[in-house]
Amino acid sequence: xxxxxxxxxxxxxxxxxxxxxxxxxxxxxxxxxxxxxxxxxxxxxxxxxxxxxxxxxxxxxxxxxxxxxxxxxxxxxxxxxxxxxxxxxxxxxxxxxxxxxxxxxxxxxxxxxxxxxxxxxxxxxxxxxxxxxxxxxxxxxxxxxxxxxxxxxxxxxxxxxxxxxxxxxxxxxxxxxxxxxxxxxxxxxxxxxxxxxxxxxxxxxxxxxxxxxxxxxxxxxxxxxxxxxxxxxxxxxxxxxxxxxxxxxxxxxxxxxxxxxxxxxxxxxxxxxxxxxxxxxxxxxxxxxxxxxxxxxxxxxxxxxxxxxxxxxxxxxxxxxxxxxxxxxxxxxxxxxxxxxxxxxx
Length: 346
Description:
By secondary structure, this protein is an alpha+beta fold. It contains ten helices and eleven strands.
């Protein structure tokens, strides 16, 4: 089985740009811009000895830090020679979405020596990419990095980076048979990645789905030693709250929405909050939103404007049902299983 080595970019050279005043990066984390078409390039550099690397390929990985509402193309060049090694095709990307570019041996070796430059060739707005070295290991998606094929095949071993790479192969080749130990190694690699900050998504239906998956893992009796999904849930949720339990997040357009609910699809995470922290003050914010929408409609329908959303069956009905059960509240149970469920399936 192939082993991999993750090399985080140790230095960047980026234009000095300000984020639009109505936008915000999540968690106060740092990011670097790639200027709109025609602007200066953004440079990535590595403190690594290219002569010591004996692999055959690598992947450049970057993660979007601010909502993208257009189609962008990012040319990737070797910094010194200005040789193009590929292009990132980024279209309407959401925050926390990773992108990668496969590099052959020659390009990867040169990248370690020279660095890489990112230059936008299509797009009207800057592209913001995470550069947050403080994100704790094993998280690696918040710093641009090279995932290097180490050139060493090791039976039964697959590190966290390799697990992530396997999940994003552009043209995966079918394998007739897994090698001894490979199934367990792949499982452990997936869990290592899942139980880290690398699985964070927006405080929305996307983040709620991830958190619900982590919650399911808390009931898994066969996790490898040392893996703690409950701790991961609490660590991820804590990023979205201030010291007093106030909700602090951005909507899908990267606009701050602190202390309030932006739409019906962002309330799914409250189902997990209720099960992990049943007395958390933010649950009152969610309840006020749901009950206010229901009271404003003659049929007690909870919806956004004139939009009927099937997703509401889980983004609203599920957290309502959880709270109804925890609080033994018949009215909440009726709201969860009656009026909105009808709305969701009509």
